[in-house]
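Morning, I've got a small favour to ask if you have a moment. I've dropped the whole record in just underneath, so have a look.
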Amino acid sequence: MHSPLRLYGRSGELAMVETLLGRLAQGDGGALVVTAPPGLGRSALLDAAAETHRARNRGPVLHVTAVPAERRLPHSGLHALLCSAPGPLSVPPERVLRSGLTPETLLTLLRETGACRPVLVCVDDAHAWDPASREALGFAARRLGAGSRAAVLIASADETSFAGLPALRLGPLDDEAAACLLERCTGKVPDIDPVVRAELLREAAGNPRLLAGLVGHLTADQLAGRTVLPFPLPGGESVLDAHAARLDGLSAETRTLLLLAAAAQEHEPEGTGADAGLLLRAGTRAGLGATLLDRVLFGPGGIPGVVERAGSRVHFSHPLLGRAVLRHAPPAHRRAAHDLLAALLGRVSAHPLPALVQRACAAPGPDAALAGALERAATAPRPHAERAAALTRAALLSTDEADRAARFAEAAEHARLAGDTGRARALLTRVAADPGTRTIRPVPASALTRFTRGMLALRDGPATDAHEALLAAAAGLTPHDPARAVAALLAAAEAAWAGGDAIAYLDALDRVGAHPHDPAVAPYLAGVRAVFAGRMAEGHELLAQCLRAAEADEDPQALLRAGACALVVGEAESACRAGARALAAVRGRGPDALLAHALEQLAYAELRAGRHARARAHALEGLHAARRTGQSNATTHLHAVLALTASVEGPAEACAAHADTALAGAGPHGLAQAATLATWAVARADLAAGRTEEAAARLAPLVRPGPRHGHFGIRMLALPCYVEAAVLAGHAGEWADELTDAVREFAIWTGRTVDPHAPAQLARCRALLGPADEAEARYAEALAHHDRAGGDFERARTQLLYGQWLRRRRRTREARGPLRDALVGFERCSARAWVDRAAGELRAAGEAVEAPAADSGPTAALTPQQQRIARCVAEGATNREVARRLSVSPRTVDHHLRNIFAVLGIRSRTELARVMDRRP
């Protein structure tokens, strides 16, 4: 359906309406009920349907919107409907108000109206019609079917009055559609500030009318971020009024209970509702009847469409309903509800913060004493989200500009720790640039603001920006809050690590040493410095102290630091244990902002330990956490980890997709670590598929010195893959000096690290590069190291290369053993991307291996070796490249290719590519 009106994010809904209109055009009637809370676009969808029907000139449209003031007037809805008809009807509208209109008569009237040309009936806000009109409309709509030439489209807040009719429930707009609508609403302000944009989208929560209202009440300077946004944001009044109108028919006692429920949500975390026990006590104190309290608070249904019960919690059916109740209550009633709840909470709550929040809600204006009490109470163990909300209220109650700025800054930091990055950024915009100096604060608002901005950039911004912002924050915090200054410097070091800047990383750690800091941090600082200086034994011992100290620690930051220490020295198992404990601590104690980072570090540690399935599971969970908390840098790193797991487990398409996403995010934010991991993953997938030339080309810049080198912490890890790719691609002679130097450097690194796989990888590299009379002994040495280190995947890779080496020397019978072991090893660790390669090598060695899937197409007549050659040629490989991939001679490839052409009845490589594309 092409609507003359632009509706964003409603393509599916428009398609359903188009289906109804299409049936109507063919002479078959029907009905559709569109339900949604106010503001989600019910009216717009009906307007679009009516405009489309008129534009196609297919017949008349009866379009009416209910008037709530006429709800008590019988048949007023039907009277308005008939008055909207473009011509005379067999039943005059005025007769309807005098004598009514039976449902049967309405059905007959609709069929008569559509007798000549199809008629479309659109009734908006039908829930506000009088009961008799709703009953008649529902009766008639249920009986419009084939041949009736009349269709009814009903928009209603709920579908209870129109049970039995097809229903379409509108949900909030998705992020993309809401962003497009915002762009349209702010068309005259092209430079809308990103923080303002995020705040508007968050506040509107996918409600198009609310979004348009919020934008309409802001000035161009506010939208551009040049002036501070008002708090709370104005513009949602019409949506709240529409929600409140649904409550007009309720009794005074019920409305009082709803007011208490809405007020009781103010001190609770967002979305958790109100405590039923507290509402029972408050309702009893307010004189509400026991029957009402029992039915609403403890009955199975609550108040249908308004509130519902979930265990001991009472929730409004829509979040805006609670806000609408508070907005429309008389101010005296609202303050009385908050005062009552404050008094009750003061007696029953173990912590003063809930009662203080209720007192703040009841405050008629600024109150410095109450603001101070809120700030003092907003401490652990209250959740960060609750502390952010309390500090925001304290800021609004503040009479001094310095106090207000500092409290907004602290609120932003707690919102960040709670994982609400959008709210954190919005709160930072309310910190005045020059808050004045009448009050001396322990920590200036400007220093707190720089710290929070830097921490936000660390997770969702360019790494260099985060590094510089955090260094500046540390300088401002040092005289006032040394502990937070150290946290800023450690975070700056983390940003430099992510960006691949080793010098900046060490510089940030050196600055930590100049500050008073936790004694547990000292071994970490000295150990990292020693490792980078080449004093490996000293560095390992110092970093091992960090690991031992963390065994008795429950602080997630300390545990994450211990996990990082383990990875630096190559103790992947220790890193997994520290990462698992850090994840448990974050899940148990928070903060939510660390969840994605903890999952990311654990997934990477498990990847280093060869636990690819576990790494994938934790990385996928981390992706969800990173997206929920707005941490795009964590998302980028996790996609890189998933690319690496897919380079082992397959499929190749998943590896490529994750790597492309990681590289797309790494570029703008300068995340060298993620970019290196993603490139390594694609190269390893190339190796699995036998594309050795491509793998070597991707890996060379990562391990070679120069401006395009990879991340300093990953270079040695990727080097064995590079050596393998270069040798298998036939560059052992051409790049001999470079490869020899690379293996020599890897040998030095192997002597310094405790990574258990490094000695085996070193022996494997020497086998690939060494003379033929030494290779077999090197492979045996590598396998002996694998036996001590464990790990199926790396061992299977060595066995695969050993088997290939034996087969290349026509020791086919001997090659079957290592190749068979490689196949079993890959299958054991679910390395599906490598199973096919090992199976192909084993078949080429003359052993029957079950094919992955039967091929019933034209290539079924080819032998397994011919099928492998055909696939390579179809991908565009030359005969020499195919020979290198399959460890055969170019003459053998040429011989098989002639036979392939003969079997398939083709003459060219182009025809072969077409045949391979047509395979099932």
Notes: The radius of gyration is 35 Å. The beta strands are 30-35, 61-65, 119-124, 150-156, 167-169, 274-275, 307-310, 313-316.
